[in-house]
Amino acid sequence: MNFRGNIPTKFSLGIFRGDFRQTSDPRNFLGNLFPRNSVGKFREISEERRNSEELFPRTCFVDINECISTIHKHNCSDPSTCRNKDGGFYCKCRSGYRLDTNTMSCKRKDFGWAAILLGTTIGFLSIMPAVSCVRQKMKHRKDSQLRQKFFVQNGGGLLVQRLSGEET
Fold first, then answer.
1. In-domain check, residue 159
2. Which residues 6+ apart lie within 8 Å of 86 measured at CB?
3. Which of 42, 88, 114, 136 could make a disulfide contact with 5, Cβ separation 3.0–4.6 Å?
4. Phi, psi (5° rounding) for residue 28?
5. What is the residue range of 117's domain?
6. What is the pLDDT of residue 155?
7. Are 92 and 146 contained in the same domain?
8. Domains in the chain: how many in total?
9. Is residue 46 in some structural domain?
10. Which residue range or ranges hold the EGF-like domain (predicted)?
């Protein structure tokens, strides 16, 4: 069984012994054992990729293309695309998306830095008018206090009394 790509697939044929270079078409070597309408290919396992204790010399395996097979179907969902690889498949997402391995579907990439930048910009633009308003009110208050102080210093109290008609 092949468990890569998150779905188990059964191989119609297991491990074979023999010289696979004796024919250009591996199906001729295997005869009628391998169905003609099957989707897949044979590949020789090289000396580096196999454990000699488990496999016989000159061993090959059948790779089923789960991306186009109707029997061994992949579980990639839109907008991802299925890509075949030896012994399985993988789902590829387009640019700007990432693969959610739980659902095998593509989701938009999270841009945490963009949210931080956007929040900072909105916060800054919201604080600017508030700071400006507070500053203007403080200036107005300071100006009023200075006018009151200068009014008293320059005899403004006497002027008020004269204008009101009170003589002292």
1. no
2. 43, 63
3. 88
4. -65, -40
5. 112-154
6. 85
7. no
8. 2
9. yes
10. 63-103
**Are residues 56 and 15 in contact, defined by beta-carbon separation less than 8 angstroms?**
yes
- What's the mean per-residue pLDDT of the chain? 69
* Position 167 in a domain: no
In a domain, 44, yes or no: yes
Sorted by sequence, the CB contacts under 8 Å of residue 74 that are 6+ apart come out as: 5, 7, 66, 67, 82, 89, 91
H-only helix segments in the chain: 26-30, 112-153, 156-164
Whether the pTM exceeds 0.85: the reply is no
**Preceding omega of 35 cis (within 30 degrees of 0):** no
Same domain (yes/no): 36, 102: yes
pLDDT at residue 35 in the model: 44
For residue 18, what are the contacts with CB-CB under 8 A and spacing of at least 6? Answer: 29, 58
**One-letter amino acid for residue 112 of the chain:** G
- pLDDT tens digits for range 3-56: 444 344 444 444 444 444 444 444 444 443 444 444 445 455 454 444 444 544
C-alpha to C-alpha distance for 145 and 148, rounded to whole angstroms: 5
